[in-house]
Amino acid sequence: xxxxxxxxxxxxxxxxxxxxxxxxxxxxxxxxxxxxxxxxxxxxxxxxxxxxxxxxxxxxxxxxxxxxxxxxxxxxxxxxxxxxxxxxxxxxxxxxxxxxxxxxxxxxxxxxxxxxxxxxxxxxxxxxxxxxxxxxxxxxxxxxxxxxxxxxxxxxxxxxxxxxxxxxxxxxxxxxxxxxxxxxxxxxxxxxxxxxxxxxxxxxxxxxxxxxxxxxxxxxxxxxxxxxxxxxxxxxxxxxxxxxxxxxxxxxxxxxxxxxxxxxxxxxxxxxxxxxxxxxxxxxxxxxxxxxxxxxxxxxxxxxxxxxxxxxxxxxxxxxxxxxxxxxxxxxxxxxxxxxxxxxxxxxxxxxxxxxxxxxxxxxxxxxxxxxxxxxxxxxxxxxxxxxxxxxxxxxxxxxxxxxxxxxxxxxxxxxxxxxxxxxxxxxxxxxxxxxxxxxxxxxxxxxxxxxxxxxxxxxxxxxxxxxxxxxxxxxxxxxxxxxxxxxxxxxxxxxxxxxxxxxxxxxxxxxxxxxxxxxxxxxxxxxxxxxxxxxxxxxxxxxxxxxxxxxxxxxxxxxxxxxxx
Length: 566
Prior knowledge:
The chain contains 15 helices and 15 strands. The longest helix has 46 residues, at 118-163. Strand 6 (251-256) and strand 7 form a beta hairpin. It is 39% helix and 14% strand. A four-stranded mixed sheet has the order 4-7-6-5, sandwiched between helices. The chain has a four-stranded mixed sheet with strand order 8-11-10-9. By secondary structure, the protein is α+β, with helices and mostly antiparallel strands. It is elongated, with a radius of gyration of 45 Å. It has helices spanning 40-49, 78-102, 104-109, 118-163, 188-196, 233-242, 271-291, 295-302, 318-322, 363-372, 401-420, 424-430, 447-451, 492-501, 530-556; strands at residues 16-20, 58-63, 68-73, 206-210, 222-224, 251-256, 261-266, 336-340, 352-354, 381-386, 391-396, 465-469, 481-483, 510-515, 520-525.
């Protein structure tokens, strides 16, 4: 059984003696405290705080609440104070007797107070001291009882935790994300533990480590969570806080599928330890990476990058990658211009790097890897493939929109000159009559026909579109598609609104519209006709590729005829 002893203060409320509303000259041996608050409690706080700088054992303070003086004495000076008070009372009584003998008038005036014997004051002082002593003892007893009650509560809580059955879910057997689980699906014991340690781990308490899984030797003391069952930081934080995943240390490594990288989670207050651990890991990896290279490989890693080469996380030490997280907002999904389904040439976009379309298949992945430093771009432009939109996009850094637009304009001019250099036969195919380009407006149809078209207002939508790039496609490349006027329809939203309202009539399921915001053409398709639109885009891409190949063969063909063999 542990007994805690509270240290007694040198100055206490039980060591105060009331002197009355007036201060006698016989108490000049006790200095008067000059305090602003004017209360006994404030005087005691001042004395306890400044005790090392005070030499006296007695002080007098004035209480503004009861308008009386109090004599405060240090703990252990009780008898000394009583002796001084007795001496003061005796001297006061002698002065009173002397005044009585010298002046009869003064004696008559003091006759009414002659019954106040000094021994009575001493008795009152002793009684007050006894009452204060009893109150102090009672306070000590209450403090002892409070400590005993706290210990009993702690013992009962410990017994309750031991007797409660542990209901922890198996990580490998449970595939459900705990972030989507309700309170009924989790055991009550797990929910109770969640509220105790709910703030130990959080999503913001994480450091990005990159897409490569670190080794256990690089992060000593860190718990590695299973990447097959824990695929997000929110799930890892929820399971760690609920106790479903047990982490005996302060660090845990988790996989984030949305960010395509590993993260080092740390407990609240352990940020410095996590940063030191990451710095040590970066130094170890950088030294071992450079030391393990052959002279030829080291020369390859140190040479200048061309416009088409991209370094990945495996080509750079983690110390270099860690320093790139400061620019996490330089690349974004909205900072992109659609180029169309055909892959542009490097000569059309000078200074832009081309990301690998097999490993990077979305704008989000490209922006995330560029911001994290997994993909290094020394310039301001990068070309990425978007599988969902079936097209290439030109990503640009924040603040470089004008440079990207100029680059796209140059590419469009180059493609226009390419069309002008085709052979007459090839040009005849592209310049044939565009019957499908004609668009009927609301004035060409009767109002009865227009009224029946408002029921299908949801057939066309902004998200039902495929980017075709900044160059206007030919009608022969998209058979069955109508071409909206680019002077009157300058955005996808206006095109969708007019098609749904019936202001523009489309008898087919495809329509080509110009968008000034994205500086490119888009193929709109009706709801449910996505497959047809994708097939049309694939046919157009194949046709353009064959045209480029034929022109390349023609340019590479010898200009002079070869002599015949004899």
